[in-house]
Amino acid sequence: MLIIKDIHTFYGHIEALKGVTLEISEGEIVTLVGSNGAGKSTTLMSVCGISPPRTGDIHFMGIPIHNLPPHKIASLGICQVPEGRHIFPHLTVAENLDMGAFLRNDKRQVRRDVEYVFELFPVLAKRKKQSGGTLSGGEQQMLAISRAIMAKPKLLLLDEPSLGLSPLVVRQIFNIIFKINEDSRTTIFLVEQNANLALKIAHRGYVMENGKVTIADSAGNLVRNEEVKKAYLGI
Amino acid sequence: MRKFAEIRKSLYVALWFIFLTFPIMVIRINPLEKTVEWRWMNMALVGIGTFFLSFLWRYLISKKEEGSKRAEEKQNEKISKLRRLIENRKIIAGSVVAGALLAAVFPFVVSLYQTNIMTTALIYVMLGLGLNIVVGLAGLLDLGYVAFYAVGAYAYALLNYHFGLNFWMVLPVGAALGALFGILLGFPVLRLRGDYLAIVTLGFGEIIRLILENWNEFSFGPSGISNISRPPLFGIELSVQNATVYMYYIMIFLCLVTIFIVKRLQDSRIGRAWVALREDEVACQAMGIDRTKTKLTAFALGATWAGMGGVVFAAKTTFVNPASFTIWESIIILCIVVLGGMGSVIGVITGAFIIILLPEYLRVFSEFRMLMFGIILVVMMVFRPGGIISGVRRTYKFEGKNF
Ligand SMILES: Nc1ncnc2c1ncn2[C@@H]1O[C@H](COP(=O)(O)OP(=O)(O)OP(=O)(O)O)[C@@H](O)[C@H]1O
Ligand SMILES: [Mg+2]
Question: pTM of the prediction?
Answer without folding.
Answer: 0.80
